[in-house]
Write a structure and sequence with these properties.
It is built from 6 helices and 18 strands. By secondary structure, it is of the alpha+beta class.
Length: about 350
């Protein structure tokens, strides 16, 4: 080969190599496999076991870790109404759990287990999907996972981003806000509380409860956006919406409130966790004046969760009878906040 031909060849080769290297550096990153994404999400999903097992009520639901020290986000439901709550991890480890707090208005609850260094979703890093986004739904639907079995994974897309309030009267749900309507059958028993992610494993939201249209008998598959829950979860972790600890050092007032002073007639307490339903309201009482009715369920006294009759009576002992009282009630499928004040002694 002539010298000038060799030089030209080397120049062309060097240029081609440079172009190839530049193309390699600017090319889109190689997509992570579906299997790899699922494997990164599975350790953040948990199975929750609690109350149920009668009248066709499943004693299980799903949840996902939102902190490295054992905070679990899930839906607020009857499953959590027990002292014998447990959480099973992806690797089969089982922990006793306690209901830390709940907000029935968002239908969410935070459960706590004693553990550290856990993989988790950071709610602050959650993303907002567009219509048509391909998604993955992780949950323990039908309770098929009991130990170290992985959670079920469903494919789908975000079909609609809509206000659930537009369906009021057709669907029975206290939640009034935006939801992701999904093109995937995620409303199976046990799936509620599971995690919705995009195809890169980034958190989008939490799978909602089973929700049936009363008019058409059709089911709605939906998820609550993570952004709608973040503030409430932060407040829960800061101490709001929680049950008062039994060893609370705050002094009780000398003249405290009671259900009798308020005119509340509660249902008989037949077990430790009898829910605080009203059996009646005394005439000409503060409760009657405030519009309370039989079958109202008391959820909160001020900002403290009262999951039982016993906790309701205990919480009233911390309120002076001359102070106004704020109750959060569930009446049918509606959430109400009512302020009342006992009559002067």
């Amino acid at each position: 080969m002539k010298p000038y031909c060799l030089a030209t060849f080397l120049l062309v080769l060097a240029a081609a190599t440079a172009v190839a290297e530049q193309a390699k550096s600017t090319a889109a990153p190689r997509p992570v496999s579906f299997h790899a994404i699922v494997e990164t999400v599975q350790p953040k999903i948990v199975k929750i076991y609690g109350a149920g097992g009668y009248r066709g009520l499943e004693p299980y639901q799903s949840g996902f870790l939102i902190s490295p020290d054992g905070h679990v986000l899930t839906v607020w439901s009857y499953v959590l109404d027990t002292d014998y709550l447990s959480v099973t991890m992806n690797d089969g480890r089982k922990f006793d759990a306690k209901l830390l707090a709940a907000d029935p208005r968002l239908e969410l609850a935070v459960v706590k287990i004693e553990a550290e260094g856990l993989p988790y979703f950071d709610l602050a890093q959650a993303v907002t999907p567009a219509i048509g986004t391909r998604v993955l739904a992780f949950s323990n639907l039908f309770g098929v996972a009991t130990g170290d079995e992985q959670a079920s994974v469903q494919h789908g897309v975000v079909a609609i981003v809509s206000e659930l309030e537009a369906r009021r009267g057709a669907y029975d749900s206290p939640y009034r806000g935006q939801v992701y309507v999904l093109d995937a059958i995620t409303n199976n028993p046990g799936a509620a509380g599971g995690a919705l992610t995009d195809r890169n494993g980034r958190l989008l939201g939490m799978l909602g409860k089973e929700l049936r249209n009363k008019l058409t008998n059709t089911w709605l598959n939906y998820a609550l956006p993570a952004g709608a829950m973040q503030t409430t979860v932060e407040e829960i972790r800061a101490g709001r919406f929680v049950k008062r600890p039994t060893d609370d050092p705050h002094a009780r007032p000398e003249h405290a409130l009671s259900t009798e002073l308020l005119g509340l007639v509660m249902i008989p307490e037949v077990m430790d966790h009898t829910p605080p339903y009203l059996d009646g309201v005394r005439a000409n009482s503060p409760a009657a004046a405030a519009g309370l009715r039989p079958d109202d369920l008391v959820l909160f006294v001020n900002d403290h969760l009262v999951p039982s009759l016993r906790s309701l009576r205990s919480e009233l002992e911390y309120v002076d009878r001359v102070d106004a009282l704020r109750l959060t009630l569930m009446r049918g499928d509606d959430l109400l906040e009512i302020t009342l004040k006992a009559e002067e002694p």
